[in-house]
Amino acid sequence: MILGILFLLVAIFYASVGFGGGSSYLALLVLWDVPYIIIPAIALICNITVVSGNSFHYVRAGYLNWRLLLPPTIASIPFAYIGGRLEIEKELFIIMLFITLALAGIRLLFNYKLYDDNKDSYTPISILLGSSIGAVLGFLAGVVGIGGGIFLAPILYNLRAGSPKQIATTASIFILVNSLSGLAGQLQKNGIADAIMDYWYLPLLVLIGGQIGNLLTIKFIPSRIIALLTAVLVLFVAVRLGIHILVG
Predict the structure, then answer these.
(1) Between 134 and 36, whose confidence is greater?
(2) Given 3-state DSSP classes, what are the helix, strand and coil percentages for the chain, each rounded to the nearest 5?
(3) Does this model's pTM top 0.90?
(4) In whole angstroms, what is the distance from residue 210 CA to residue 179 CA?
(5) Distances, alpha carbon 108 to alpha carbons 17, 119, 154, 155, 174, in Å
(6) What is the pLDDT of residues 187-211, one digit of tens each?
(7) Cβ of 112: how many Cβ atoms within 10 Å?
(8) What are the distances in angstroms from CA 119 to CA 94, 113, 163?
């Protein structure tokens, strides 16, 4: 029950800034000693559930920017699938996850002011740069079991590649596509599909949390405030995971 509540809270925070929460789902599953082989698949399914709602709401609101979206997203698909098919040792996976969470949390903590709903000036990035970023993040997403949007969004903000809502839309769809591709790779591993059924309630809870998060950011709370709260949450989970690594 506690794990489910935490997944619900993570979904609320992450959905409010256009993310799925995959990195924190992974850390929570590790801390709860869920069988390692199914952890990435569960996190990806929850990611897909949350960002599907994000993508729908943002696109319906008119924030889709095809030029910003297509290069990184198309380039990421094959690399996410390849990364998802790779099998890595549990110890290496946990270390990679810790580094991923720490970097993501630090980026958000120092860049949360970039999530300003009132900024509207931007410069489109080249197709080559967008594709290169997408390929690298897609591979990382597939290996670790995240969507990669938590890295893509800060990069796009720093490059001033689009408006805040356009970047959030791009990050959501990027996460969705990468999560689907990565999950396809993960499901090629033996025994995954049956084992994840024991955790059926987690996608249901993040579906609810994702809808709440979207409502908060659209109607009530500024994106930069929720981005700051998300950074704190990510760093907290990273610290817990770091302690888990140290104590074995």
Answers:
(1) 134
(2) 80, 0, 20
(3) no
(4) 16
(5) 11, 17, 7, 11, 18
(6) 887 677 778 888 999 999 999 999 9
(7) 21
(8) 37, 11, 6
Write the DSSP symbol of residue 122: -
Contact by Cβ (8 Å): 45, 184: no
Nearest to 17 by CA among 235, 179, 230: 230
Which residue's entry shows tokens 């770091």?
242
Residue-level pLDDT at 110 = 83
Identify the three-state secondary structure at position 145.
Answer: coil
Q: At residue 123, what is the residue type?
A: T
Query: What's the Cα-to-Cα distance from 77 to each of 85, 139, 153, rounded to whole Å?
Result: 13, 9, 17
48, two tokens: 């897909």
What residue has token string 């903590």? 109
- Cβ burial of 111 (10 Å; 0-12, 13-18, 19+) is middle
Q: Is 99 exposed, middle or buried (0-12, 13-18, 19+ CB in 10 A)?
A: middle
DSSP output for 51-100 = HHHHHHHHHHTT---HHHHHHHHHHHHHHHHHHHH----HHHHHHHHHHH
Let me know if 240 is exposed, middle or buried by CB neighbors in 10 A (0-12, 13-18, 19+). middle
N- to C-terminal Cα distance for the chain? 25
Tell the residue number behind the tokens 């907290």, with chain if given: 236
Cα distance between residue 114 and residue 230, in whole Å? 14
